[in-house]
Amino acid sequence: MQLADMDRLEMNEWLAGIDPAAYRAAQVFRWIGRGAACFDDMTDLPRELRARLASRAAVGIPEVVGRLCSARDGTVKYVLKTADGNVVESVLMEYRHGFSVCVSSQAGCRMGCAFCASRPQGFARSLSPGEMFGQVAAVSRREKKSVGHVVVMGIGEPFDNYDGTLKFVRLLHEHEETNIGYRKVTISTSGILPGILRLSEEGLPIGLSVSLHASNDAVRERLMPVNRKYSIDKLLEGCKIYTDRTKRRVTFEYALIAGVNDAPGDARELARRLRHMLCHVNLIPVNRTEDSGFRPSPKERVRRFAELLSGGGVQTTVRRELGSDIAAACGQLRNTVVTQ
Predict the structure, then answer these.
(1) Structural domain range at position 186
(2) Which residues of the chain have pLDDT under 50?
(3) What does the pLDDT read at residue 337?
(4) Which residues lie closer than 8 Å to 190 by C-beta, 6 or more apart?
(5) Are 47 and 86 part of one and the same domain?
(6) How far is residue 9's CA from residue 23's CA, in Å, rounded to a whole number?
(7) pLDDT for residue 324
(8) Which of 110, 186, 252, 300 has its CB surrounded by the most CB atoms within 10 Å?
(9) Residue 187 within a domain
(10) d(CA 260, CA 156)
């Protein structure tokens, strides 16, 4: 049992059977929100109570085992280990609007996207809600920074861990120490259509980001095996249902790969598909990884692609990538221990 997985009501009910003092549950819940990784950190609890808690449950906050800081932009990558030895990575990024944490939802990933560094590592398991929350709490605790935004864009496919991811989002909102509103959270999917449709019915104003990376099925199947199950037409139809139900736009992520998906014809085809959708496109020159061999599109190619999309009536941004020098940028995270 991991206490970090519990919401406030669950914590109250569980602690009531151990200590009748109602305020004890609030104390423990507060310490978890602060990123306390062990019961000994909970210094306002009696020593005897801490021992009893430790005999019955684990806290569930992953242990920080590595930290790398970018010399270019100050982005910080954290490597964290769960109680059973699985390793994940999280990233702290600073923007003009404040600090944002990129969270992993699984230890490994089974989507097999060709450009992603986590692909050769394989899949171990999904993370629990508390292990996901623990990444935010641990990073905030170590850096002494107030996190204002969270993106579930790290290792793993969030909709392959749907229930865990949604409970994590609710924990973010419920913990006073994080107090991150739903509008400050974005979930990124490789295109798991049932997850998109489920999210559209949750009634939560969460941001949705969809990794598209191609304008047709032939190229997308080469890059993303998930396209064999959910074609671009099916995926975009589901995204339209999402925008109709929620009145919120979808962000499409598009990694520009030299000679693969960055031709003017690709841009025009993509504009035709997206022209009448409530959406925004983030263009990202693909980040290099050890295994893919892909190269980012040249700057002029990126500029031309963006012009064609904008000219075709699609809101477009070329995203500034952070942390690429420490393998912390989009597609570069993997479950590897570093000790620097």
Answers:
(1) 63-326
(2) 327-329, 331-340
(3) 46
(4) 111, 113, 157, 210, 211, 224, 226
(5) no
(6) 13
(7) 57
(8) 252
(9) yes
(10) 24
Burial of 71 (0-12, 13-18, 19+ CB in 10 A): exposed
- Strand-pairing partners, residue 133, are none
Query: For residues 95 and 323, is the Cβ–Cβ distance under 8 A?
Result: no
The pair of structure tokens assigned to 235 is: 């995926």
Cα dihedral sign for 287, 292, 293, 298? negative
Reported for 234-242, long-range contacts at CB under 8 A and 24+ positions apart, including other chains, are 234/193, 235/191, 235/193, 235/196, 235/210, 236/273, 236/274, 236/277, 238/193, 238/196, 238/197, 239/196, 239/210, 239/277, 239/279, 240/277, 241/196, 241/197, 241/200, 242/196, 242/197, 242/199, 242/200, 242/208
Q: Are 336 and 87 spatial neighbours (Cβ–Cβ below 8 Å)? A: yes
Residue type, 161: N
Q: Both 79 and 149 in a single domain?
A: yes
Which active-site residues does the annotation give? 89, 330
Considering only CA atoms, which of 34, 42, 75 is closest in space to residue 179? 34
Q: Residue 289: its pLDDT value, please?
A: 65
pTM above 0.85, yes or no: yes
Give residue-wise pLDDT tens across range 39-58.
999 999 999 999 999 999 99
Total count of residues recorded for the chain: 340
Per the structure, the count of domains in the chain is 2
- Tell me the H-state helices in the chain: 8-16, 23-33, 47-56, 129-143, 162-174, 193-200, 217-223, 232-246, 264-274, 299-311
Which residues is 87 bridged to in the sheet? 81
222-244 confidence digits (pLDDT tens)? 999 999 999 999 999 999 999 99
The CA distance from 203 to 215, in Å, is 30
- CA–CA dist 234, 232 (Å, integer): 5
Element (H, E) at 191: none
Output the pLDDT for position 335.
47
Complete DSSP assignment for 217-275:
HHHHHHH-GGGGTS-HHHHHHHHHHHHHHH--PEEEEEEEBTTTT-SHHHHHHHHHHHT
Q: Are residues 90 and 195 in the same domain?
A: yes
